[in-house]
Amino acid sequence: MSDAVSPYATIAVKSHVPMTLELCSSNYSKWSSFFRAMYSKFGLLRHINRTPPNPIDAAWYQANCCVRSWLYGSVSDSVLDFTMTDDLTARQLWVAIETHFQANQAPRAMFMSHEFHSMTQGDLSVEDYGKKMKRAADALRNIGQPVADSMLVLNLLRGANPRYSTTGDFITATPNITFAAALDQLALKELHLANADKVVASTALVASTPSPGYGSNCRSSSAPSGSQPRCKRGSGKRNSDGGQQQPRAPYPTGPWFCFNPSAPQQGGQAGGSGRQGWHGGPSWAGSSGGQGWRGGPGLLGSAPQAHAAFGSPSHSFCSLCCKNKMS
Predict the structure, then answer these.
(1) CA distances from 263 to 260, 294, 302 (A)
(2) Same domain, 86 and 148
(3) Rounded to whole angstroms, how far apart are CA atoms 248 and 276?
(4) Residue 145 is part of which domain span?
(5) pTM
(6) pLDDT, tens digit, for every residue of 258-271?
């Protein structure tokens, strides 16, 4: 029996205790809980709760060495420097670790309590804020100063961001609410606020985007029949000599129109389908007028024939932008 290999020798401690005990961290309570669960799972809790039997048999000694190796593999070197000596049993090593983490409890409790009660959320998320407060409460419990769940809730609301004041009022009005439930309420409010910020940002972006055609001076030439294109230009301006300038006539509504250099320079009312001259100038005819050019001889003589006027116009005007361009 003494030559048999212990069944616990092949068990990997990290698969059951996934954390490492550190001096600078406050994870002793969580670490010890994992280890006690592991001992109970394999029926070895007696190795840390009881003194070794007398006499010590080979089976007990092998199991005790396995427990010690689990402890060695789950704590940091700084912890082992303070607790590890030769020929320690698993119970002696366990007690040494526990004593080291609970030493100087009074001064440590004073500083940790001040840190706990002065904690604020700041720019932290609700989840990170809750984890930070829970770690501080665990550190107090490890040195014999446990924090009640109701005190955790009150301290959570005291240091929370002012944006959660309405949710804080609802939490305080809920009787016997737990720390986890209060944290869930704050997290839900955080999601609502984040969604509201996205909606506001999207609305502001849409409002600042100019609509298509913004800043155009004239209406399109494809406006309904009977409507006149409008330009953002003033009418009735004064001349250089102080006289009142005549208002401009409305622009033609056809898809295109031509300027007749042979038309008279003095404006008049054209007959048929013609319209009043622009700026008191020649008469106009739309592309579908069918009446040709109106008016008498102009500066260049008599009006040209229909095929000449419409076949090779000297100038053309776009009714959309009202600019003269060479053909």
Answers:
(1) 6, 7, 8
(2) no
(3) 10
(4) 105-193
(5) 0.46
(6) 445 555 554 444 44
